[in-house]
Design goal:
single chain, about 450 residues, alpha+beta, Deoxyribonuclease I, Chain A, six-stranded mixed beta sheet, 11 helices, 14 strands, about 40% helix
């Protein structure tokens, strides 16, 4: 069977147990909507409850019988992928930096933000690697550099994974909630280093980069691809927004990226993956209710698979996928030719790397300062425990005992917590930043040497 179209959806489902409003009702509505749709691949974020995933998986099983729910961190990654095509491999790569364990309210460290991926056996494209991610949230595009640095680390690690997948001859689709605006440094890093192309931009080439005045909420969705903080969404209507969200009547945080394989043999005639259309979906209310499907809208992309003229067809016996495939799956041809009509691949410039390094260096210094402060708190707690231990012998009134016990327990908890976050996590964060800074410096120096030559 020849497949000429590929429809992909990404949706942040906002499914945190006990916290997300109307979670059960919304998950059931999402499952019903997906069951009646005609998608080939669906990437979901913030599906924290496995029971919710089962509801969705059961509802769409006739159309998308293959699925994967990913585990990471203490509370799970919240990532899931559904596919119409056989999944022949799956993996999850937790990001090196995901905030601090002491930032309980933000919660990113506990859920283990990651890049999840499945390797799909597509009947026309051959090996198709699909990435699903949810990048570090706090800080936004204008927050402190030490918070933005964590998202930059996420973007760098995802870009490396996507680039490696393309270099071994796979088509790549990377979708999810990137928590970054289109012009931000993490988005530039992902597109430049991995040569990933933004499906929304490719299918809306005439859309202005900036609005001329304040757009209507509908225009913000249809023209600028706004998926979060839209006045049309019941959970963000009336919400206090940051400047960029006020300018665009919301933010574009959800993306679908794609690219062809790298380094093709020019004589082989293989398919070209091109985006045909993208649109923001799940913008309406849940049927019969006054609330939205999620606090994010979904993003849908329709790709067209084109067979170029000329060249020789690759023999399936020579390019058969070596991974184990389900018995009913046919032999597949490994596609290796990029789109000759596409724009030249973008490259990460030394200036961009320098800007990234500035943010990472600021985070490195902040991490060292924070670790010292937290270890100081640990020492103070230990000293206070010693004072209480020694001084309790001179307390004449036993009625103070419950208060002393409570203070002792609190100080012991604080000492243990700050020892861990100041020493164990502090060293982890500093070491991770050191490794990435050194890696980027080597990469920048290599680029500069090539420019000199």
């Amino acid at each position: 069977m020849t497949e000429s179209r590929l429809r992909v959806l990404t949706l942040n489902c906002w499914g945190l147990k006990y916290v997300s409003k109307f979670r059960s009702e919304r998950m059931s509505a999402i499952a019903h909507a997906l069951a009646s749709a005609n998608y080939d691949v669906v990437t979901l974020q913030e599906v924290w409850v496995y029971g919710d995933f089962e509801i969705i998986r059961t509802a769409v099983s006739s159309r998308m019988p293959y699925s994967k729910f990913f585990y990471s961190g203490a509370l799970g990654a919240g990532l899931a992928i559904l596919s119409r095509f056989p999944i022949i491999g799956a993996t999850i790569n937790p990001y090196s930096l995901n905030g601090s364990p002491i930032e309980v309210i933000q919660g990113d460290w506990f859920v283990g933000k990651a890049a999840a991926s499945v390797l799909v056996a597509h009947p026309t494209l051959g090996q198709l690697q699909i990435f699903n991610t949810h990048l570090f949230a706090p800080g936004g595009d204008s927050g402190p550099l030490h918070l933005q640095a964590h998202r930059l680390v996420n973007a760098w690690e995802l870009a490396k994974l996507a680039r490696q997948a393309a270099e071994v001859g796979r088509y790549v689709i990377a979708a999810g909630d990137f928590n970054s605006s289109p012009a931000s440094l993490p988005m530039n890093l992902i597109q430049d280093h991995a040569s990933l192309r933004d499906a929304w931009v490719e299918s809306h080439p005439n859309s202005p980069a900036m609005p001329n005045g304040l757009p209507s909420p509908v225009d913000a969705v249809n023209i600028f691809g706004v998926t979060a903080d839209s006045p049309l969404n019941s959970y963000s209507a009336g919400k206090r927004l940051e400047p960029i969200a006020r300018k665009f009547q919301g933010k574009r945080l959800d993306y679908i990226f794609f690219r062809q394989p790298s380094s093709p043999p020019a004589s082989v005639k293989t398919p070209i993956l091109m985006v045909k259309d993208t649109k923001v979906v799940f913008t309406e209310r849940v049927p019969g209710q006054n609330f939205s499907f999620s606090d994010h809208f979904g993003l849908e992309a329709t790709f067209e698979i084109i067979h170029p003229e000329g060249g020789d067809l690759a023999e399936s016996s020579d390019t058969h996928i070596p991974a184990p495939v389900e018995p009913q799956a046919p032999n597949f041809v490994l596609a290796t030719v990029p789109n000759p009509a596409s724009t030249p691949p973008r490259k990460l410039s030394p200036d961009s790397i320098t800007e990234i390094l500035q943010s990472l260096t600021a985070c490195y210094r902040f991490s060292q300062y924070r670790a010292r402060s937290q270890l100081t708190v640990f020492v103070v707690c230990i000293l206070l425990l010693l004072v209480i231990l020694v001084g309790s012998a001179w307390l004449p009134v036993s009625s103070f005992n419950p208060l002393i016990i409570f203070i002792t327990i609190f100080l012991a908890w604080a000492a243990t917590t700050f020892l861990y976050v100041g020493f164990v996590y502090g060293r982890w964060e500093v070491n991770a930043l050191t490794n990435i800074i050194e890696e980027l410096e080597i990469y920048r120096d290599t680029l500069l040497e090539r420019q000199i030559r």
